Amino acid sequence: xxxxxxxxAGFIGSNFIFYMLEKHPECEIVCLDLLTYAGNxxxxxxxxxxxxxxxxxxxxxxxxxxxKLFEDEKIDAVVNFAAESHVDRSIxxxxxxxxxxxxxxxxxxxxxxxxGNVRFHQVSTDEVYGxxxxxxxxxxxxxxxxxxxxxxxxxxxxxxxxxxxxxHRTFGLPATISRCSNNYGPYQFPEKLIPLMISKxxxxxxxxxxxxxxxxxxxxxxxxxxxxxxxxxxxxxIGDIYNVGGNNERTNxxxxxxxxxxxxxxxxxxxxxxxxxxxxxxxxxxxSKIQRELSWKPSVSFEDxxxxxxxxxxxxxxxxxxxxx
Length: 325
Ligand SMILES: NC(=O)c1ccc[n+]([C@@H]2O[C@H](COP(=O)([O-])OP(=O)(O)OC[C@H]3O[C@@H](n4cnc5c(N)ncnc54)[C@H](O)[C@@H]3O)[C@@H](O)[C@H]2O)c1
Known about the structure:
325 residues; three-stranded mixed β-sheet; seven-stranded parallel β-sheet; binds nicotinamide-adenine-dinucleotide; 18% strand
């Protein structure tokens, strides 16, 4: 199988490429990435010389370039990670989120239709469901929960999801969608909560925490997200949505304190800052469908995952320091 992985120079996409080349050495991977601020070609250095890996710099919303790639490469499946992915940036500049996340997804699906009804998997997010109240721990998002977005980021991801479902229903595109909770692990850009806090703590800088730090997220180790996408790609029911989550809800402040403790740093580094506009309170995912139907389950506990992640950032300071220049 020849898989086009878009956004493979970013956090989850690069982890997915490493995972697939290790687990399925017979597969070929073509990575299409625009190398925005969030993409780092150096991340892919370990696989660059592999005969079954190819990197192409390009924009998923550039129709001519995408069609040329499909003509040249005879792609069997697309896994679309490419996106603008940071909520704060979507508040500053929503337009680029619509272009990449919505128009880019549509361009890729048009190519899939034109070049042999190619299998398409859309990597989406639990943020499309909006948020849940803090005082109702019994409530979880299921695949049937309403789409109720809060930020321009989540609205763009939800719009793309709706286009994927429309392309499946209207044109018979063999598509699936995964909606995953917050990921953490190696190669995450240090603007996102966990690597931001690790990198600041390691430099003894103040750790900015929104509001009172009570917002709750469900955290999943990135390797477990990769295995979930693999399961859906190979065995998922066409036209379906699968929620993916870690059953691991934590408040932001709990995470920050855990990182400081692990690094033996003082909690005095914590600095509470003005809350993000429209900040979602709680995300919590019911992933029983993928567990039941595809026998997927998370394999890394949060305690192990956070330790592995902190160790990775300690051992790879040059990777993240360069990005902060
Ligand atoms: N990080 C999370 O916790 C999380 C959780 C659920 C879902 N997701 C989704 O997973 C996907 C990957 O997230 P991530 O955290 O790895 O993001 P990331 O920001 O680390 O990486 C995004 C990658 O996409 C590339 N890119 C951006 N615009 C492009 C374009 N127009 N054409 C081609 N490439 C482009 C960037 O260069 C970068 O390499 C996104 O679709 C995101 O919505 C992320």
